[in-house]
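@channel sequence for tomorrow's demo:
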Amino acid sequence: MVGTAIVTDCMCSAVDVASLGITAPFLWLIAGLFNGVIVFLGQRKWAGDDAESAFIKALIVAFLVALPTPFPAFLTVPSGIVGMVQALRRKS
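structure tokens (generated this afternoon):
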């Protein structure tokens, strides 16, 4: 799910640059909704979260994707590593 958010954010940033910002409001809204739904459904199914927790996480991801700036690399890579370590600890 993190990969989906990062890839979608990169695609939106590239299209935003290519269109000189004309499509930005519409594009960021669609990307935020798209990722919010994916995170909500994924958290419910694979992480076993209740509806409220999954909705809060989906809102956070949708907001981050809808921001008109790309994700900084110095945040995404360490966050992915921390998430992987936590997932591996739960399985052990």
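heads up for whoever presents: Helices lie at 2-18, 24-45, 51-66, 73-91.
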